[in-house]
Amino acid sequence: MTTEATNPPHTAARSGMSELKRQRVRAAMWFLVPMLAALAIVAAWPLARTIWFGFTDTTLNNLYGGEFIGFENYLTWRELSSGAIRWRGILADPSWWNAVWNTVYFAVISVFFETVFGMIVALVLNAEFKGRGLVRAAILIPWAIPTIVSARMWGWMLNDQFGILNDIFLNLGLISQKIAWTASADTAMTAILIVDIWKTTPFMALLILAGLQMVPRDIYEASRIDGVHPVKVFFRITLPLIRPAIMVAVIFRTLDALRIFDLVYVLTPNSAATKTMSVIARENLIDFNKFGYGSAQSTLLFLLITAFVALYIWLGRVNLSGETER
Amino acid sequence: MKWVKLTSFYALVVVIVVIAVFPFYYAVVTSFKSGTALFRISYWPESLNWANYISVLTSRNFPISIWNSVFVATLTVVFALFLAVTASYALSRVQFRGRALILMTILGVSMFPQIAVLAGVFELIRFLGVFNTPWALIISYTIFTLPFTVWVLTTFMRDLPMEIEEAAIVDGASPWVIITQVFLPLMWPALVTTGLLAFIGAWNEFLFALTFTSSETTRTVPVAIALLSGASEQEVPWGNIMAASVIVTVPLIILVLIFQRKIVAGLTAGGVKG
């Protein structure tokens, strides 16, 4: 993007080209119309409708029978005859805040471990050794497996009675009795985290690897000749150089983690310990016939993610200016 | 000292490979067991019993689900590529005001949480009368395939040199001719990569597929597998589930391994250059 701004448009005879240029711009507009129309129909309009439904008491059975109720889905209060105030709405709903906590907790922990493990895998893949292609092929497998399939595969491995994971951990002496990973409230979130970290670390590793491969090799050569300790090289040279790549990967993964739905829905159905914002919003929209209420919850999740995108753009600016200074 | 380092490095490599591959390996091992053998833990394949595969493939609805998935994913890809090729030509090769804004909008849409549009798309699909048909999914999948495809193709086209277009412009070729005659032949690698990634995205999608279909004959594969269950907790047909999982995953793994270099390039172009 920066190159466009600095390079003048490639035109040998500017005045003679102007009619041609206008024609090109006109054609470009026509090329863009179908794509923009498609996005308006499947993205912009539904988003606007969702936000609107959030201000109504629409039900699933009667999509057009809802009435505007202002912020009642979000927060409303009623004064009881005794003078006490009763709060209602999403913002006063403990199950909503439980879902918010689950989502944020999941996002922070999963992205943290994915970054650390992704970094380790990327460093291994960046080294030259026999069988590197094999390792890269192997780590692509978790990424290629559909989320639902991995949820069922791990559901079987984490089974309390016949699961192989309990067997391995018992044999290694890590646990003293079989654990009901997905059913017990204490371990359900851990189970979700294990599966998600297993599935998405490869993506993280590939993004970090792309960053690592842009670091010129002679930097390592120079520091090796100077006798700098490899750990120091990593923290002083490699890490600062690939920081932009890591930041982008982290933001992408965070956005993805904040909207997690399928893994939770399939691996730990109806467990309050893992219900995320997406799961609870869909539950209200479809299962509980509270279309307006669920729409309001979707809108709140959208706002949360928008805040992260804004943060991303802001961070992007910071990186960009940092690069031009150099 | 040197061989200690080398051994620990290779130990790490082995750990990574085992962790990455083991769950799928175990699913394959399980899928070849039936009866009580299923509930005996074994680390190595013991039998080659095709009963689960036969049972899944001859069931009434699973083959239909496979066909639904193929149909939906293919049309989604065709639709997205068709719209994206012309749009990304305009976004990468023509200078006009508002281009940066459009690119930012596309990037923004690709970050949408699907749940945020679920209610609105549900209404749209009811309005169009396509609820519980493959068209409901093909229309709704555009929201995540199109921005991604446009983004990757735009970055690809932007890197092509100006010279390849110049001769065609001098000859007075129209932009449509330039796209179809000059760019399309050069773009096959990028089209294959983005098409494949869009295909995988559509093949794996769950939230829309779950919400916009209501009968067993319109389900796609992920929904069918997620909802495969027995009469009770104890009767979950694990053998069938694993066989179905292996059936839908093996083609993907083969495709990914064949195109692994291209896919890695496509993924990082979508991510890093964002």
Write the layout of secondary structure elements.
The complex is a heterodimer of chains A (326) and B (274).
Chain A: H1 2-6, H2 14-53, E1 76-79, E2 85-88, H3 94-126, H4 132-144, H5 147-157, H6 164-172, H7 188-212, H8 217-225, H9 230-258, H10 262-267, H11 277-287, H12 291-325
Antiparallel strand pairs in A: 1-2
Helix pairs in contact in A: 2-12, 3-7, 3-9, 4-7, 7-9, 9-12, 11-12
Chain B: H1 2-31, H2 51-57, H3 62-93, H4 99-110, H5 114-128, H6 134-158, H7 163-170, H8 175-186, H9 188-204, H10 207-211, H11 221-226, H12 238-258, H13 260-271
Low-confidence stretches of chain B: none
- Average pLDDT of chain A: 86
- Uncertain regions spanning at least 5 consecutive residues of chain A: 1-15, 319-326
Strand percentage of chain A lies at under 5%
Q: Helix content range of the residues of chain A, please?
A: 55-70%
Rg of chain B, Å, rounded: 23 Å
By CATH reckoning, the class of chain A would read: Mainly Alpha
- CATH homologous group name of chain A: MetI-like
Structural class of chain A: mainly alpha
The gross shape of chain B turns out to be globular
Order of helices and strands of chain B: HHHHHHHHHHHHH
Total discrete domains of chain A: 1
Q: Identify the biggest protein-protein contact and residues per side.
A: A-B, 97 and 92 residues
Radius of gyration of chain A: 26 Å
Describe this structure in words.
The complex is a heterodimer of chains A (326) and B (274). Helices cover 69% and strands 2% of the residues of chain A. Chain A has twelve helices and two strands, in the order ααββαααααααααα. In chain A, strands 1-2 form a two-stranded antiparallel sheet. In chain A, a hairpin with a 5-residue loop joins strand 1 and strand 2. The radius of gyration of chain A is 26 Å and the shape is globular. With 274 residues, chain B is mostly helical. Chain B is globular. In chain B, helix 3 (62-93) packs across helix 9 (188-204). The chains are: A mainly alpha (326), B mainly alpha (274).
